[in-house]
Design brief:
elongated; about 50% helix; mainly alpha; about 80 residues; 2 helices; about 0% strand
C-alpha cells in the first residue's frame, strides 16, 4: 500500500477552512440537594452527648482505679 492509497478523496465542496465553531448546547440538570446545616440546638446536643460520654468514661476508669487500689491495699 502506498501513501496515495491512504489519502481520502476530497469532498466536492473542497473548502480548506476549518468548520465553523458552534457554541455547545447547555443542558438543564437538577442541582443536588445542599447538605443540611446544623442548627445551634443540634450542635449543643452533640456537644452535650460527647461531654456525657467522656465524663462517664472517666468515671468508670476512676472506679476501676479505686477498686484496684483497694484490692492491693493502697487505700
Amino acid at each position: 500500500m502506498i501513501d496515495d492509497e491512504r489519502i481520502p478523496e476530497p469532498q466536492p465542496s473542497g473548502a480548506l477552512v476549518p468548520p465553523p465553531h458552534l457554541p455547545s448546547t447547555a443542558l438543564a440538570a437538577a442541582a443536588p440537594v445542599p447538605p443540611r446545616r446544623w442548627d445551634d440546638d443540634d450542635v449543643i446536643a452533640a456537644r452535650n452527648f460527647f461531654t456525657r460520654v467522656v465524663r462517664s468514661t472517666f468515671d468508670a476508669l476512676d472506679n476501676v482505679g479505686d477498686s484496684i487500689a483497694s484490692a492491693i491495699g493502697l487505700r
